[in-house]
Amino acid sequence: MKKMIPVIGMALCTIFSLQGCSGEKNIEATNSKSIKQSSKHQEKKEQGEVGKLQHIYPLDLTLKEVTFTSDRNHVEGQQHSKVVRIQIKVKNIGKEDVGIGSGNFMLYDEHGKVYASYGHDQNFGDVLAPEKELKGYAYFTVSEGKPTKVMYQNLEGKTVEWKIEKIS
């Protein structure tokens, strides 16, 4: 019996440590905190063509908002100093399902350099059924220069773009 007490104690310690390491509830709490913090720490850009509806069959696309954000993913070790968040609204006006996501969008600087997309858990993507809408975010890292243009490219290579004015 005395030999069983340490074994039971070790088993309980293992179970409690695994429970503490699962972090499922912690991830949800962190995500809700980061969402609240991001809304407080955003610098708006002058809008330019933001808000302008663009059409590339079978999609209607609108950039709703372009901002710098302090919201970061919590996995990456190296945190980037500047991250741009773009809110996008998409509607499928065609007759078939269409796949779309943040990977279809590119952000450019004034010299035509493409900024890297930023791996964030709130990047959007989905398959849109006909007449359905999707609203979501695309994130990009900005190391130097000024973002001046957002471009969407479909699978056929057709593009539409929006000009972004100077950072305020």
Automatic annotation (TrEMBL):
Residue ranges occupied by any DUF4352 domain in the UniProt entry: 49-152
Keyword terms of this UniProt record: Signal
InterPro entries, per database record: DUF4352 (IPR029051), Immunoprotect_excell_Ig-like (IPR029050)
Pfam family, one: DUF4352
Protein name: DUF4352 domain-containing protein
Organism, as annotated: Bacillus cereus
